[in-house]
Amino acid sequence: MAPTYTLYHGTFIQLPRHIPIDTKPSLGINTGVLWVSNRDGKIDGFDWSVNPDLEEALDLFVKSKGWSVWRDGVDAKDGVETVVIVKGGRDGRNGFFFPGFIDTHIHASQYPNAGIFGSSTLLDWLKKYTFPMEKSFGAEEEGERAPPQAYTVYNKVISRTLSHGTTTASYFATIHVPATNLLAALCHQRGQRAFVGRVCMDNLVFCPDEYHDAFSEESVSATKEVIEYIHKLDPEGKLVAPIVTPRFAPTCSHAALSGLGRLASSYSPALHIQTHISENKNEVLLVKELFEKSEGYAHVYDETGLLTPRTILAHAVHLTPEERALVKKRDAKISHCPASNSALGSGLCPVRTLMDDGITIGLGTDVSGGYSPSILEASRQACLVSRLVASQASVTTGRETLSVEEALYLATRGGAQVVDMADQIGGFEKGMYFDAQLIELGPAVESISHESSHDVVLGGTEDTGNVDVFGWENWEEKIAKWVWNGDDRNVRAVWVSGRLVHKRGV
Amino acid sequence: MAPTYTLYHGTFIQLPRHIPIDTKPSLGINTGVLWVSNRDGKIDGFDWSVNPDLEEALDLFVKSKGWSVWRDGVDAKDGVETVVIVKGGRDGRNGFFFPGFIDTHIHASQYPNAGIFGSSTLLDWLKKYTFPMEKSFGAEEEGERAPPQAYTVYNKVISRTLSHGTTTASYFATIHVPATNLLAALCHQRGQRAFVGRVCMDNLVFCPDEYHDAFSEESVSATKEVIEYIHKLDPEGKLVAPIVTPRFAPTCSHAALSGLGRLASSYSPALHIQTHISENKNEVLLVKELFEKSEGYAHVYDETGLLTPRTILAHAVHLTPEERALVKKRDAKISHCPASNSALGSGLCPVRTLMDDGITIGLGTDVSGGYSPSILEASRQACLVSRLVASQASVTTGRETLSVEEALYLATRGGAQVVDMADQIGGFEKGMYFDAQLIELGPAVESISHESSHDVVLGGTEDTGNVDVFGWENWEEKIAKWVWNGDDRNVRAVWVSGRLVHKRGV
Questions:
Q1: pLDDT per residue as tens digits for the range B15-61
Q2: Residues A234, A242: contact at Cβ < 8 Å?
Q3: Which residues in chain B have their CB less than 8 angstroms from residue A447's CB?
Q4: Which of A139, B44, B155, B315 has its CA 20 to 30 A from that of B36?
């Protein structure tokens, strides 16, 4: 019989659930114990009064709960609950539990192109690199299953994102139903929380030959197929959910957009929706041309029923004040993708302005417009971009600058709000899923004496990555060092709904 | 007896030595053999007609040269030259030799602060984080040796930069002579090519209490002490050289600047000089105020004899056209530090404009204004910044955008020009020092069959980093993937003057 609970002990760091407007969040840092029910993968409680470094304190705590420590193959006495104990990092390694990252915008199918975009910007990049790659996810013959490439790439994407601590991802797949279903199945099997969307694109003016929906009804009917598949795969939607995915206005007819809007609202609760908006100036002009009757880009989505509280709009670099007001009014969400916006030269997204408007924002990697599948990298880039926005202001107040804590807020709490799961993921509150990563920054750099200084040249110690802790740093400083120089080497383990889905090293 | 030569075989990738203005460089990709004389660490020749994958071809080549393969403890016959053979990467691991990176601007003493700068910008960051850290490198009592902290930090900086493939660094130390000498000694001992500068700052208006030169003569005399130490340490200047280092105009009196200018020119050849220029708008205003008689920031350095062909000016984000013309006229060099400029919100350096002016540019990490000691990260950031410059242009031609190859050019050839060693480092020409890194991107991602797809969750294969090669990429694409997602895990070995100074794994 499986253990009733898993008890995690050590340091738990998270961001506050709510930030009053005009204040900067501080890290919530607690040491103690937190236990997760293995029945539903949810946090059952925590106790920050237990000293996690004292074995006796742990023993006492376990006894006080009436639990017995679980042993494989040994059944507990009737009625006695069992517990497995997991330590938060090895001694002296600066370990801590952190909420799993939420990637609110990632194109799983584009992953093999990560880092390949030459000097292109959005529209030529799509035609030169992206569409040909996505096209290769089609089955050889209609009705057949996805090609081997889809298995390879989708497994790799899941492995990579998990290894970087991403516990929830909102994926764009391709237009192909079998490959999209496969992505959903793999996420379900591997245990990554995911929204999986079949990409819709029926506008032949912009879409390439041989990679588009035949007509607007196909956008809707093929999406429906995927929705049904995912609902069968995960009837309660505990891990994987469908998401309606019109690529973006330039690739979709008004009929397809409206059909998808109706489709999303025909379910109860309404389905999630994801698309792109105002990423690039030329794209904005193109939408103006294609939808000349609409007041703006956001209005195109609004008029077709796609601007909802469950809609994720990626990018939003060039929204007008009127569009921002509309997005806010509809409570639609924004996925900020700074690495992508810089890499494709799309521009500097004015995140502070969006935040001041009260719009809900999370982070996205936007692979492969973004070059990295890491939300830690996205957090870093969000900080950089905000500093560059500040540098462009005529009067520099520094307010535009995102703090490290704000970036991490967007990466966890913000992302949870964006996927409309703020009560379920993004933090360590009771009743939330235990979606978490165990981070280890590594041991402090030791003093090197004169005599031995020539010995360190070819030393072969364990690779704990590029964060160097010297020993004098407080937790805020250590977290800053993690954000700026951390990578997947610092991610020792990842859990989704309490299930271990990635671990690293011994 | 040591072997006469080391023969490296495999793929060698480099940038062209000269790029005609208005053209973009292409990668120079060759496979074959290259041999280095172990007498002086210089490249003695190469032959791209030898197939490095065929053992017989290697044997034949070695015989044709009249060499015998070196065996430890076995002396070759009189007059016979011996050779050690080094393979460029393991089979199927996408390995290649690349010129070592040149970091033209790094503050070794600030390394423990990497990633810690809060929301500050240049001037408050210096006061809050940087000066206190630098101050701690002082000896307890005058005349004593450097504190243990200096050993620890400087060794760590050398280890980290070597591990990222930096074979040459131009270091700022602190104002302390013993610690600066120590840095030079450690570089010499560990085998990293370095310029080491004792930081000069005597302007009490800006400098903090207890961390400044007592008077302008001290700036000069203390610098002289370090120069003499380094000249004794490395009389021929084969590995480590002194560099005159006025921190920047706001911290220096006119007398100190002039004294240092005279000092540099009193040597033959004239000494290298390094300082900062026009990093931040408020700094530019401050210089205007402090040096009201000067026409501009660059003019302050020119008037004090500091604007020379051997001068490295870090940043140059906000130079006026007149200043750019002056810098070009004096043939002074610029160290572009994009990670730092974004992290401190200094602004977007218009690199293309500087290049079009014909100014020589290299890359700098600017640790710890820059958060990372990696020049690969600086290359990536240079690409991102140039794309953002392009996005700000009223008409976007895409010309502003640095290609991956241009960024790597700056990281190697450009850096070599900046430190006035273009004939000696930065490429694989005959007669150059073998300053090189062996990169392995890792094996191609393999197809995963349906059946085994659930086995990959907790797999524990060798960690080859975040670059995923799928097998269809040409070298240009693999290099792009390296620039965008590579890190120190891809650096298998590093040589300076043919000496192995870093290796990774087995």
A1: 999 888 778 999 999 999 999 999 999 999 999 999 988 999 999 99
A2: no
A3: 148-149, 151-152
A4: B155
Number of domain units in chain A: 2
Looking at B418, B445, B478, the residue that finishes a domain is: B418
Residue A110 sits in the same domain as residue A92: no
Q: What's residue A143's pLDDT? A: 72
Assess if residue B267 is contained within a domain: yes
pTM over 0.90: yes
Q: Is residue A94 part of a domain?
A: yes
Do A113 and A86 reside in the same domain of the chain? no
CB contact under 8 A, A347 and B460: no
Angle in degrees, CA A372, A373, A375, rounded to 5: 100
Q: Return the closest-CA partner of residue B413 out of B5, B27, B45.
A: B27
Residue B447 pairs in a beta bridge with none
Average pLDDT of the segment spanning B466-474? 96
Residues B147, B267: one domain? yes
**Statement to judge: residues B288 and B159 lie in one domain:** yes
The last residue of a domain, from among A378, A398, A418: A418
CATH of the domain at B304: 3.20.20.140
* Candidates A485, A501, A503, partner chain B, best to mutate (most B CBs within 10 A): A485
Contacts of A489 in chain B (CB under 8 A): 463
Name the least confident of A208-212, A356-360, B139-143, B304-308: B139-143
Which domain CATH number covers A42? 2.30.40.10
DSSP calls for B447-484: P--TTTGGGGTT-------S----S---HHHHHHHHHH
Given the structure tokens 């010297």, which residue do they identify?
A470
Cα of B178 to nearest chain A Cα, Å: 14
Q: Does B215 touch chain A (CB under 8 A)?
A: no
Range of the structural domain that residue A362 is part of: 102-418
Q: What is the value of ipTM here, to two decimals?
A: 0.96
Q: What is the mean pLDDT of each run of 10 residues along chain A (506 residues)?
A: 94 94 91 97 98 93 96 84 94 96 98 91 92 93 86 97 98 98 98 98 91 96 98 97 98 98 98 98 96 97 98 98 98 98 96 95 98 98 96 77 96 98 98 98 74 39 86 96 98 97 86
Subunit contact A449:B148, Cβ cutoff 8 A: yes
Q: How far is B500 from chain A (nearest CA, A)?
A: 9
B192 and B139 within one domain: yes
List pLDDT tens digits, range B378-409. Answer: 999 999 999 999 998 876 677 889 999 999 99
Whether A423 is covered by a domain: the verdict is: no
Q: Are residues B414 and B463 in the same domain?
A: no
- First-to-last alpha carbon distance for chain A, in angstroms, is 26
List the single best residue of A384, A396, A404, A475 to mutate versus B (max B Cβ within 10 A).
A384
Count of CA atoms in the C-beta half-sphere (13 A) of B412:
30
